[in-house]
């Protein structure tokens, strides 16, 4: 009851209140949620915001690479105009163009750096996807394990423990079994129920 009271105060504090004015909290410990398939869970995580940021980062890196490439292209400049020769009184049209000689590095260093940053981003994205997949797989395995544990404990194990207690009670009443044996049988049943509750709680905490 004290743990519930503490949890209620923490819940109220989560929305900035000190007044516990919400209704009674109800929950079914054994209403286990559907685990789903590992593939579906991984797909949802890979589409989440933690990995979606790589898409925008990749577009930015690709833009940087495109800009570096455009800076490497040689610019051809064309010009023209009229020119008057004062000595003869003639007028001529001049046409000219200029193009830089490819003697210097045409931003090859910038292109290489942009490509390296893009490759680094791809490596980071691959590592993040692998980490996310591994984390989801581990949690999925734990969910499946705790769910199966609950089903087994509340099914076959509980039935066997109840059957053993019933037989022990009959033996005790008939004088064939001792009080200690009866206590052990009751302890076994309580242990199975306790283990089922703990497994269900672990399942909800995953």
Care to give the gist of this entry?
This protein is mostly helical. Helices cover 67% and strands 9% of the residues.
Largest sheet: 2 strands, antiparallel
Uncertain segments = none
Helical fraction: 55-70%
Helix-strand category: mainly alpha
Query: What's the number of extended β-strand segments?
Result: 2
Which strand order does the major sheet show? 1-2
Beta-strand content estimate: 5-15%
N- to C-terminal distance: 23 Å
Q: How many individual helices?
A: 5
Shape assignment: rod-shaped
List SSEs in N-to-C order. HHHEEHH
Radius of gyration: 38 Å
Q: What's the mean pLDDT score?
A: 83
List the helices and strands and how they pair.
Elements: H1 2-14, H2 38-46, H3 49-72, E1 77-85, E2 90-98, H4 108-173, H5 179-205
Antiparallel strand pairs: 1-2
Structural summary, described in words:
The chain has about 210 residues and is mainly alpha-helical. Helix content is about 65%, strand content about 10%. The protein has five helices and two strands. A two-stranded antiparallel ribbon has the order 1-2. The longest helix is centred in the last third of the chain and has 66 residues, at about 110-175. The chain is rod-shaped and about 145 Å long.
Descriptive terms for the model:
two-stranded antiparallel ribbon, mainly alpha, single chain
């Amino acid at each position: 009851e004290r743990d519930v009271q503490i949890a209620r105060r923490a819940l109220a504090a989560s929305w900035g209140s000190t007044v516990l004015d919400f209704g009674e909290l109800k929950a079914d410990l054994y209403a286990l949620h559907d685990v789903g398939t590992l593939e579906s869970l991984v797909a949802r995580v890979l589409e989440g915001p933690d990995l979606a940021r790589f898409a925008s980062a990749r577009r930015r890196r690709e833009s940087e690479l495109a800009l570096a490439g455009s800076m490497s292209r040689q610019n051809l400049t064309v010009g023209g105009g009229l020119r008057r020769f004062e000595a003869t009184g003639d007028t001529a049209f001049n046409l000219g163009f200029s193009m830089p000689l490819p003697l210097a590095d045409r931003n090859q260093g910038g292109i290489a750096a942009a490509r390296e940053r893009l490759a680094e981003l791809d490596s980071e994205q691959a590592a993040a996807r692998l980490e996310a997949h591994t984390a989801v797989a581990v949690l999925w395995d734990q969910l499946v394990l705790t769910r199966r544990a609950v089903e087994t404990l509340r099914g076959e194990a509980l039935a066997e423990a109840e059957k053993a207690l019933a037989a022990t009670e009959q033996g005790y009443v008939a004088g064939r079994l001792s009080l200690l044996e009866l206590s052990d049988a009751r302890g076994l049943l309580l242990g199975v129920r306790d283990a089922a509750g703990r497994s269900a709680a672990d399942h909800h905490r995953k």
